Amino acid sequence: MDADFASSPVSVLATLQRPPAGVWRQAWHRFRRNRAGMIGLVLVTLVVLTAIIGPFVAPYDPNDNAAMLRGASNAAPSARNWLGTDRNGYDVLSRTIYGAPTALAVGLGAMLIASLIGVLVGGVAGYVGGFTDEALMRGAEFFMVVPVFVVILAVVRLFGIIVVGTPLERIPNFNLMTIILLLGLFSWPQIARMTRAEFLRLRHAEFVEAARCIGTTPREILFRHILPNALPPLIVLVALGIGGAILAEAMVSFLGFGDPKSISWGQILFFNYQSLKVAPWACLAPGTAIFVTVLGFNLLADGLTDAFNPRVRA
Amino acid sequence: MTALLEVRGLRKHYRAVRRGLRRLFARQQTGTVRAVDDVSFVLQAGQTLGLVGESGCGKTTTARSILDLVRADAGEVRLDGQDVRPVLAGTDRAAMLAVRRRMQYVFQDPYLSLNPRWTINEALREPLRVHAPQHQRDWGDRIATLLERVGLEPRNGVRYPHEFSGGQRQRVGIARALAVEPDVVLLDEPVSSLDISVRSQILNLLAALQDQLSVAYLYISHDLSSVRFISTHVAVMYLGRIVEIGAVDEIFARPRHHYTAALISAIPVPSPGAVDQRVHLRGEVPSAMNRPAGCPFHPRCAAALPICREQVPVLQPMGPNTQAACHNPA
Predict the structure, then answer these.
(1) Coil, helix or strand for B222?
(2) Mean pLDDT, residues A280-296
(3) CATH code at A91?
(4) A207, B100: Cβ pair inside 8 Å?
(5) Number of neighbouring beta carbons within 10 Å of residue B66
(6) How many structural domains comprise chain A?
(7) Interface test with A, best of B113, B169, B178 (most A CBs within 10 A)
(8) Which InterPro entries match (chain B) (predicted)?
(9) Domain B5-17+30-117+171-324 class, CATH top level
(10) Is the ipTM of this complex over 0.95?
(11) Is residue A16 part of a domain?
């Protein structure tokens, strides 16, 4: 049908009319007009680009502290070190650039884990209902009331001791992975609750009943009707959660519980806050990076909220 | 001769209970809503049975139970003599599809009954994918034919539901129901969410489609004038029970149940200066949770006798083609 539709004279008229807008295209249309959201998108893109191409353009190796041997640690920004050096003699610009992939790995990794668990638990709770729903949601509440930081600090320290002498010790960035895993394990309840609410709403939506009437399999109903319609609010939550996870990792690292083998902005702060008066640039650069990244993801989430809200039709 | 669709003793009661964990602490049952109580009717091929009644009288629950969208507590739904309720609830997918192919449903609100993320073509492809997966090459043609049949241009199939008006969406809903060439279509207030001006278009379309395809309709509505227009038979429901059923001409000419009479008198007469002969009902519909003893209509009935307070009337023949449940028929 599409073929002769294209060759008929009607198609000229059809192409003159504005193209059919799906929900995603509509959302993008609204998103583009949202200034805050667009700023967020630009900031996030900046961070992502830095993470991808940064290692190729960074002036120094992140573990190159030769400046210390020259007695040039805590050096002010210069042509040689654009953002100066820190108290260990590292090039601040290079360290900050290399912090971007770590931050993104933390944010995306934690939210990937959280999304998988959250959508699964929330989806089952919302779709099955009854006692299963009650049990799963009470479980989710348990994870919501546990103070994440205390758990992370305890587990990181504990693992630091247990791991010594085992093969696990040789896994690179084992500490960082522990932190990512824990952040993911404690941020899924939000996603589960949202998924459950959406599934409850959509399970009895008329178009789902209509599909049931036709005889569509429950699997297709789940994956083709319910899940796609539940996605927009979840995407907003995930975007918000990425910023939250990055901030959380920065805090853990700032307390000195980060991964000593990985380069993270929080850890750069931890190494340098004592020389804040002598070499403020060493703290300002990673601090700004954290600020920009988290702000970017929050603005992006904000813009997405508006974009997916059909009542805002500006 | 076996009827195309025969519903016998259909019943659906809802228990009003506390939900969730609170159930553990307060176990007592707080009441029973008799949404559908012992509903029976027959629908012959090519006919239209109008199911009328006030909001909450169980019309929609009846229709939904027929298709197992709501699991009925008791009763039979016979399609060509075969009870399909166990088939729809059962695990034999092929048998279930065979039944679903013959009975389809048009939903009340065309804004809610189409997946907002699917184009019209995709929405129409779903019934074909489920019921005719082996004829994939013909889908495009069949979708185009369907759209033309309901008065939409096939080239608009690439559009999304939100780009259509309510009337156009309802046409899509009808096309979706007709995609599998069913014998019975359950129309759940198909026009009540539409503008008055569009209603007659959709009703005319439904009537024309019935002529072409000789499909039987179960037409649910609270609007008696549309029921009179489209139906051959009518069943009047009150608080979950059918109180009067029969050929539409006979019932409109001489309603025997006082509730039917009141409903018919409430149809606006489109002529200025017409004498208001309306039967005004006292009071409100009682909650289906504490239905009055005896005839459920007796507290509002002007012709109530003492027996009406004690004994539930059953459907009895009143004319050649009508039955009514009333101790003191008009």
Answers:
(1) coil
(2) 93
(3) 1.10.3720.10
(4) no
(5) 26
(6) 1
(7) B113
(8) AAA+_ATPase, ABC_transp_ATP-bind, ABC_transporter-like_ATP-bd, ABC_transporter-like_CS, Oligopep_ABC_C, P-loop_NTPase
(9) alpha beta
(10) no
(11) no
